[in-house]
Each structure stands twice: as C-alpha cells, then as structure tokens.
What does this fold into?
Amino acid sequence: MKEYVGGCHCGEVKFKFNSDQAVEIWECNCSICKIHGYEHLFIKHDDFEITDGKDLISEYSFGTKKAKHLFCKKCGTKSFYQPRSHPGSYSINLRCVDEPPDIYKVVHFDGKNEFK
Ligand SMILES: [Zn+2]
It folds into this structure.
C-alpha cells in the first residue's frame, strides 16, 4: 500500500488515500460517467481522507438518488464521490490523482442497463 494525493482542478478540494500500486479501475457507460469520462478507483472509506476544501464540496443526485455525486463548487470537478455500486467505498476519479497508481485491469461496467 502507498499513499496517494489528488483533488479538483482549482486545487481547493484535496484528498489523500492508501492504495495498492497496481489497481483495477472501472469505466461505466451510464449517463453521468459517460459525460465525465470517469475512471473509477474504489477506495474503502477508512483508507480515504479529505485534507482540504471540505466546505466547498457540493452534492448532486438523480434517479434513485443512491449515488452521491460530489463536486467542487468553485471549479465543478468531480474528483471523488459515493457510488451506488460500492456502498463501503468512495470512487475516486483516477484522472484527478497527482501521480496515480498503475492500471492492471479495466472493467467495463454496464451502468446504463444495470442502474435503470
Ligand atoms: Zn475546485
């Protein structure tokens, strides 16, 4: 395990987390992931910490409202959020990690049909 840091575009929201150095990520075809080109890295709540900008984080939900889409109020970046598929973890956007871990596997998740 290694500590990684990441955050939003403007740099106000920052987080750190512990992760393996080679990871599996998910790409999802649902309406919101498709728009963002989101690369999901699931990290257990206990291994994740917001280090800056907590008060700038806003929330968006749609459909069943089970997923909590979190974004920076200032720059609009969704750097991590609470996914419906993994209730015990956050999903971090690998694109928002400063020096990200290596990807050893990409899972193509059919969120479009799974989450109707
Ligand atoms: Zn921001």
